[in-house]
Amino acid sequence: MLNLTAKEIQGKLVESSDLTAGFQLDLTSVKSKIEKFQLEQRVIENLINSFQLKSVALKRAMVLIKGVPPRISKKRGSLLYRILREQKTDSVSKKSKLRAEIATLKRELQKICPHPFVFCKEGYIGSRSNDYDDGYPSERYCVVCGFEERAVDFRQNGNLERVGMFFNILDDSESRIVQDEPYRQFPEHFSREEIWVPLGAMLHAFEERVVKILNS
Could you report the per-residue pLDDT of 3-48, keeping only the tens digit for each? Predict the structure, then answer.
């Protein structure tokens, strides 16, 4: 049984209305604070991300400053000299001899090189129309000695599609810089970057990336 008078009901309506208005104001205030905190969160997350990137860039700068050991640089210089001579000579016998020397020097260089500067080529999982048979794994190669390696975890089928990110030799390391090749248009991007040039020119892309991050 309703034991309320019209006046009492009217009073409760006014009270309820006042309380609702007050809670709505509180809700608006809370939402405003949430938006403020979310904005602060994004700012802090961006700062953390920026400093993490700079921390990585500074570690890479240390690798660049350390450079390539003298004996490796010297052997690479000898290799470049023979490559240039082989390109310029017209003598078949001299070309043959130089090619043999080049092959030997490349093997020797790869054995002693710590692979400090590495380019990465993204793989391709393959197309569904070809049952993924046209896929190929990600690759990494050292720009100092030319040693190359394909990802060991490459898979291709209808269920598991992965171009690979794990490498036995050219893995991620604090003593190594691994980054994507400089952009090249189709179809040049399918081939590897020409590494048999003076080392300073080859390392420019690595230095440029570090400088860009540190100056951002």
Answer: 778 788 888 888 888 889 889 999 999 999 999 999 999 999 999 9
CB atoms < 10 A from the CB of 205, how many? 17
CA proximity to 144, closest of 190, 189, 176 = 176
pLDDT in tens, 137-177: 999 999 999 999 999 988 776 556 688 899 999 999 999 99
SS3 (DSSP) at 167: coil
Q: What residues does each domain of the chain span? A: 1-66, 68-112, 114-216
Query: Among the residues of the chain, which ranges form H helices?
Result: 6-66, 70-88, 92-112, 199-202, 204-214
Sheet arrangement for strand 148-150: 148-150, 139-142, 117-121, 177-180
Q: Which amino acid is at 183?
A: Y
pTM: 0.80
Q: Which two tokens stand for residue 118?
A: 């590495």
List residues bridging with 59 in a β-sheet. Answer: none
The CA radius of gyration of the chain, in Å to the nearest whole number, is 31
